[in-house]
Structure formats: C-alpha cells, structure tokens
Amino acid sequence: MAAFLKHSLLLNFRSQTHIVLQCHLSCQAGLFVCYQRLFCKKANASPPISFCSRKSYTGENKNQVMEKPYLLLNCEKGGIHGIHVKLAAILEEHFEVIPYDEFLKNKNFYSHKIKIFYLWTYANAPKHSLLQCLPNLKIVLSPGAGLDHLDLPLISSYGVKVANTPLTVSSATADFGMALLLASARSLIEGVKMAALPDIRYITFNWMGVDITGATLGIIGMGKIGYKIAQRAKGFEMKILYHNRKRRSKEDENAVGAKYCEKMEDLLQQSDFVMLVVNLTPETTKLIGKHELKLMKPTATLINICRGQVVDQDALVEALQNGVIHAAALDVTYPEPLPRDHPLLKLQNVIVTAHIGARTYSTNKKVVERMLANGLAALAGLPIPDEVTQSQKKSSN
C-alpha cells in the first residue's frame, strides 16, 4: 500500500466558495485525517480546518497496530505554566504528546520518534542542542503571529519547517487592545479600587476620565490586527490615523475612515491614543523612545499590544513620571514578567497586564486546531497552510 492515499472530493459549491475535503490515510503513521480546507476567492480568506481521527490504524496485517506520530510539547500538560488539559486532549487525538520534562528524562528513547515540536509558551525554544538530537523532526509549530522567539535560520539549517497561526489571534488581540484603551481612558482600575475601599462613604464626582468618542487613535502597524482595531475604533466614532510600511488600499481606508501618515512623527503629534501593533524586528526594536514620546501630546496614552522591546521602557517610565505623556496601557513588557520592583508596576497612570491579549478559550482552541492542521499537513507532505515564508524569515532577522 502507498504511504499516503490522497483523495479530493468536491463536496459543495455555493456562490464563490469551493469546499474541498481531502482525506489522507497514512499507513506508516497510523493516522487517518480528514483535512477540510475552505478555498475562497477573497484574498484574505482563512481556511477553517476540521479533523477526524482514529487512535490507531490496523493495516493489512490485522494484528499490527500502528502508533500515532510523536509530538514534543515545550511545556507541561495542565498546570499554570502548561497547555490547558482540554486543549492537550485535542492534540492527543492525533499524536503521542510528550511533555518537555518527560522528554528530557527519556531523551534516548524519544529523540528518533519526535516528528513535531509544538511551542505553546516561549520557554524551551528550539536551540542547536535540541535540534541536533531530533533527526526526524519535520516542523516547529508556534502559536500566534510573532516569530521573534525563534532562531529561524538555525531551524531552517536543519531542514525543519516552521509554521505559526497569524490568522487565529487577530480578533481577540484587537478586542483586548480596545479593552486596554477603554480601561485606561476611563480609569477603570482606579474605579474598581475606589468602589472596594473599606472606609468609602460616598462616590466622588471629581474623578474624571478621558473621552473616547471623537478622540484620535493613531495605529502604528496596520496589518491584520491593526485593521481590526480600526474597525472597532470606528464603532466608537474615533478619528483614525495609521502608519505602516505599506499604505493600505483606498477601499480599506475608506471602510474604516482611516488616514495614512507617511511619517510616524505626524501620527504621534496628532493622536490622543497611540496603539502599537508591529512585529518585533531590528527596525522596530525601541521604535518608541525618548524622542518619540516627546512628540506625543501631554494628554496622550500609549498602548502596546505587540512586544515589550518595541518601547524603550526606561524612557517610558521617565515620560510617565514627568508628565510627558498622560498614561500607558501595556499587555507586553520586557522582560515578562517584570521584576516585582519595576517602576511600571507602581505608577498610578499605568496598566500592565500579563500578555493575555489572545487568551480566550475559543481563540486558543482555534490556535490549537490551526497548529494541528499545519502539523498534519507537514507529516502528509501537503502544502502547509501557515508555513513561514523566506520573506518572513528575512524580515525577522
């Protein structure tokens, strides 16, 4: 029997959408996968994936049971530092899932079995010492859109592919960006603390927030997440400016009422809220420093939902302490978590959250399923939906 039997069946056709079901039967891996891809004529369409599986497959020899392929997980299953047990269970339908600690204890046994390295956290990223002892590794799977935690040239030098999930986290991250903007503008954290004061006798009417309706939002980085933020900001009747390496189409701009700023300095000077939504590269490291903060309005708020290294944190602390800008709301810092005595954790005009922009169960389930689709495609020798391209690798160097 051939290693993989491939069959594509046209299931449905309606309007401008083809749905194709590709079933792949692997006799070597003992894996039956129903791999459903949605092909749309829309350029930015994201193909949803659904799966069926058997825990084992009995081949021509009825007594022979084929084991599932091995997946190395870079954390534990469950616990505060591991992948949620319900999400791990999704992986276990298709793979023998080996937590990192178990792998280290039995490295000689597992090294030749591992086909997929699955990153759920930023810990234990693949280094030379790990890659050289995984001769059959096919792909490294990483959640979300960022790639800065991976040494892509090193991984590529071992002939290993990389895939991430940029399409699955954009909505949740955009939602959280707006949540930070709202919480900072309306002094939500202070309001919660005030309501819980043990000796409070009345609610003060002198506690003033900042209006959002009619305010100007400057978005630095108008990719998938940035554009979704603009869509949400339009609902709050905000004026939208954006700065990006490439200007978006007039159609995109008109849909959200966004105005392009070729120079970032112009955006900084005009915005009441500045939202950072860029990838971390050498060019964006410390993109916002002392000079850029001085360009902002003294009433402005800086919101960072991309990477902590994009902001010069020492310069930010100084700007916040001296009234150069009004406030900051940060879902990302450098390092994460911050040292417990870091000034950003003590300033009253700062909100710091623990990099939870995409942390909803629904989104995380989609991330796992998308990573699963990428991994199964790699093992089956099929096109990988979210394979990291050479251009992405170069931009991350």
Descriptive account of the structure:
The chain is an alpha/beta fold and 397 residues long. The chain is 30% helix and 21% strand. The protein contains 14 helices and 17 strands. The protein has helices spanning 85-92, 100-105, 107-110, 128-131, 152-157, 170-185, 188-195, 224-235, 250-256, 264-270, 290-295, 313-321, 361-380, 390-396, and strands spanning 4-14, 17-26, 31-40, 57-58, 65-66, 70-73, 96-99, 114-118, 139-141, 161-163, 216-220, 239-243, 258-260, 273-276, 301-304, 327-330, 350-352. The strands form 4 sheets. It has a 7-stranded parallel beta sheet with strand order 13-12-11-14-15-16-17, with helices on both faces. The protein has a 5-stranded parallel beta sheet with strand order 7-6-8-9-10. A 3-stranded antiparallel beta sheet has the order 1-2-3, covered by helices on one side. Helix 6 crosses helix 8 (224-235). The longest helix is centred in the C-terminal third of the chain and has 20 residues, at 361-380. The chain is globular and about 70 Å long. The two termini are 43 Å apart.
The portion of residues assigned to helices is: 25-40%
Tell me which oligomeric state these chains represent.
single chain
* Structural classification: alpha/beta
Average the pLDDT over all residues and give the rounded result: 85
The major β-sheet equals: 7 strands, parallel
What's the count of strands?
17
| Unreliable runs | 1-60
Quote the beta fraction: 15-25%
Strand order of the largest sheet: 13-12-11-14-15-16-17
C-alpha end-to-end distance: 43 Å
What spatial form do the alpha-carbon principal axes imply?
Answer: globular
Count of helical stretches: 14
Q: Compute the CA-based radius of gyration.
A: 24 Å
